[in-house]
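Practice record 12: protein with copper (II) ion.
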Amino acid sequence: MTTIKIKGMSCQHCVMAVTKALGAIENIKDVRVDLQKGEATFTELKPVDRRQISERIKKAGFEVVN
Ligand SMILES: [Cu+2]
């Protein structure tokens, strides 16, 4: 299980957008987004490039903080 910090989420729509953005990345499964903590957790079936994750999150309008 991988956990990343995400900046900029303020409501359930943000949660949906982040969940969708992460879920669309190959080899990422079981995405859970915690709005209050500003975190997303997911399973990597194979190691996923962190830069790719950051880019997808950015495209969705948010920012990875790690
Ligand atoms: Cu929102």
